[in-house]
Write the structure tokens for this entry.
Amino acid sequence: MAPNAERRGWAGCCGITLTEAVEDYLKAIFTLSTRNEPTTTSALAEQVSVAPPTVSAMLKRLASHGLITRADDHRVELTDHGLQHALDVVRRHRLLEAFLATVLNVPWDEVHAEAEVLEHAVSQRLLDRIDSFLGHPTHDPHGDPIPSSGGPHVERWTLSLAQAAPGVRFLVERVSDRDGAALRYLGELGIRPGTVLEVVERAPFDGPLWVQVHGGGRHGLGASLSEIVHGRVA
């Protein structure tokens, strides 16, 4: 059983041992599905960094305990109970990211990796203290919404900067945390949740998207960067 699983109230609820691997898979399925990406064996293998046969074995196990269902197109979906477990892991991860960034000043491009380790060990009692100490934050440093301890949760990816038309003002609300190097570079440019950008122009022939950072400089962003920045027209 994962450390502190019993103290979090999950012990034996569905007959599965909540190992770190089980929690990682549930979170990975949640992450891919909420990004409208395929939750296939190959996609999950890449997400959790294991071989496809290992994924297949785990999916059979999760399905046998009623945590996922499998569709004809080989995609998997979380059941309502599986979603509860996934949200529990996601809540721990994102609260820990907020704590590391706010209290310990860990750079926003490093908090994801650190939280990946700590999320399996933190007790519910400590997590509640962190939540209270931070003033019950609603979002982590990347703009990801933090699930509540028991209420409904809405996970939504808004317009990407790559889709914004030249001439508009764009409020950054969320930045994908997949690539630490990309986060570090965007941070150096001053592009974070809460930043307002003016979309200046899109260079032809797949050229960069030029943006003006409010109170900062003008920068050209390639597709790989503009696609991970999400927000809304301000």
